[in-house]
TrEMBL record, chains A, B:
Its cofactor is Mg(2+). GO terms for biological process: isoprenoid biosynthetic process. This is Octaprenyl diphosphate synthase. Its EC number is 2.5.1.90.
Length: 346, 346
């Protein structure tokens, strides 16, 4: 029997891990030694001489169920580009620290109560600790990334951090606004998911001093993987098997989130339908049967199907990007990973 | 008639500016041109292509009443060390962004309602915006500091950022604990105030490629200035003229803060006095007349006087540190500034 694994997105939802099967495990196996070194470094750097609350809160999040997908992307990118030094470990730990810091802050922003199947830090301690420990981890991430001494890597990761924060602010300000465009949606999910994926892969390639063509390919791979991943996640909210996804169908609808299938259904809506979306999402006046009606409208306009197609296109884009890199087992695993992300969207 | 000016410490209190008179104004006059360039850069970098909420929140805080003390310290340090390039502007803006980010987060953590005499961002918008815009500014700070391409500068500022967060977490966890030691108090105020002061001055010197002796001197100056500044602030809470300080005597006592005069009074307490502190600070059971009793105990053990003496010692330490640097008007102003910080503690 396979152990249950959890993955989280930045909006605090917990689901059965999309990556629990082969590609993610294959990646972990291929990078086992480096991954051990990353975990050791994380444990070392999350300590604090003066404030024991910091490692307590961090360990709660970092120790539990984190699958290290982002650091693995950094390690894989560096290795794919033939990196022979030791600083990809620092970079991978940096990426995980940035990720952990954003999770801590997101749980405060969203007032989340659960993450990775456990109570959130803001619930177990308080919002103050989550905000400040997040700040600490963010600062530690920057300290760590200074060590390799590569200014372009610093620029990439600092840029990603600002894109992440910008995406979160954008999500906050467009929440429940039924005029949200596809472009805005893409900007939000880039901030929420894809920016750190692409920074993880691109910075690994830059560290390895790969040719510009390979750096660009790995950026594109990370970006497209992140977009496909988040789109699939948003789509499964309306169609996934809750036993498999660990989520309830319609959570996003109840939380009035403007995800792609809804944005497209609103774009295609007639006046009556528009009034429905304005009432349920815009004003949050939801009644029995509204979720079924929302699903029927998405079905009528084919937006679940078209979103599935778009997610597959992004997955394909990620796989295509890899083809400029030399063939290797690692490249195959990364390609499989991109395929796997959308494989449940039948 | 002189305009009223405000200054804030990281714990969100607003008072009449200790620096409103000569040394701060002299510094601003000596650095006018650079300061204008810093303000222009700040306005440019706080913009966001996608999320207008970001410049709105930032402008509310950065635009209003900020006296740019920290960026001025960076500019002054670089100039004192003969820096002839243009990157001290970036560094100064970086320091102000880090400061602004910590203010936004501190106001969330402390649930503050006022800063610089105006409603806080968390009150005008919400906690979410303050957390996320703070994150954005922090990331922008790192992007900005990558530009000069000086890895040691990056290391100093990343290190200061982690000390700031660590100090804040420490303050949170020792709050209302009457066993708090002087050492812990020093650690807390280093995080809260002195770490960014010393990083501001030290990084300016490093950017200028000053000899190590000068770098160290400017670090010590910033550190000691910050410690003296915060100690004076904590002391004035128990003895300042509220018409002059804009604060009410005893705010820290009512908020059960372990500042130096209290820590020393507790260290000297007999059993009865200890029970008093345990009740009023430890358990927060305060009644009419308790503030007067606290003041009487601090007076009995001479802790207001000894704290005043310690603050003066730190101020002197700051001034002494400067003596290794070549004499100049700027050096004199910095020395005056250190003297001014404690000049109200008669």
């Amino acid at each position: 029997m396979q152990a249950t694994r959890f993955v989280e997105t930045n909006d605090g939802r917990v689901g059965l891990d999309q990556f629990a099967s082969r590609p993610h495990d294959a990646l972990a196996a291929a990078l086992q030694q480096e991954l051990d070194a990353v975990n050791t470094l994380i444990n070392e750097k999350m300590s604090s001489r003066h404030a024991p609350r910091i490692p307590e809160v961090t360990a709660h999040l970092v120790g539990a169920g984190g699958k290290r997908l982002r650091p693995m992307l950094t390690l894989a990118a560096a290795k794919l580009c033939g990196y022979a030094g030791g600083y990809h470990i620092h970079l991978a730990a940096t990426v995980e620290f940035i990720h952990t810091a954003t999770l801590l802050h997101d749980d405060v922003v969203d007032e989340s109560k659960q993450r990775r199947g456990r109570p959130t830090a803001n619930l177990l301690w308080d919002n103050q600790s989550s905000v400040l420990v997040g700040d600490y981890l963010f600062a530690r991430a920057f300290q760590l990334m200074v060590e390799p001494g590569n200014l372009r890597v610093l620029d990439i990761l600092a840029g990603a951090s600002s894109t992440i924060a910008e995406g979160e602010v954008l999500q906050l300000t467009v929440a429940q606004d039924i005029k949200t465009s596809e472009e805005t949606y893409l900007q939000v999910i880039r901030g929420k998911t894809a920016a750190l994926f692409s920074a993880a892969t691109q910075s690994g390639a830059v560290l390895a001093e790969a040719p510009e063509e390979h750096v660009e390919a790995l950026f594109t791979y990370g970006d497209a993987l992140g977009v496909a991943f988040q789109m699939a996640d948003d789509l499964l909210d309306y169609g996934g098997d809750s036993a498999q996804t660990g989520k309830n169908v319609g959570d996003d609808f109840r939380e009035r989130k403007l995800t792609l299938p809804v944005i497209r259904a609103i774009a295609a809506a007639d006046d009556t339908e528009r009034a429905f979306w304005e009432r349920t999402i815009g004003r949050g006046k939801q009644a029995e049967g509204d979720l079924e009606q929302a699903l029927a409208l998405m079905d009528k306009h084919g937006t679940l199907e078209s979103t599935r197609k778009t997610a597959h296109d992004w997955s394909q884009k990620a796989r295509d990007a890899l083809t400029v890199l030399p063939e290797s087992d690692l490249r195959t695993i990364l390609s499989d990973l991109a395929a796997y992300v959308v494989s449940r969207l039948t």
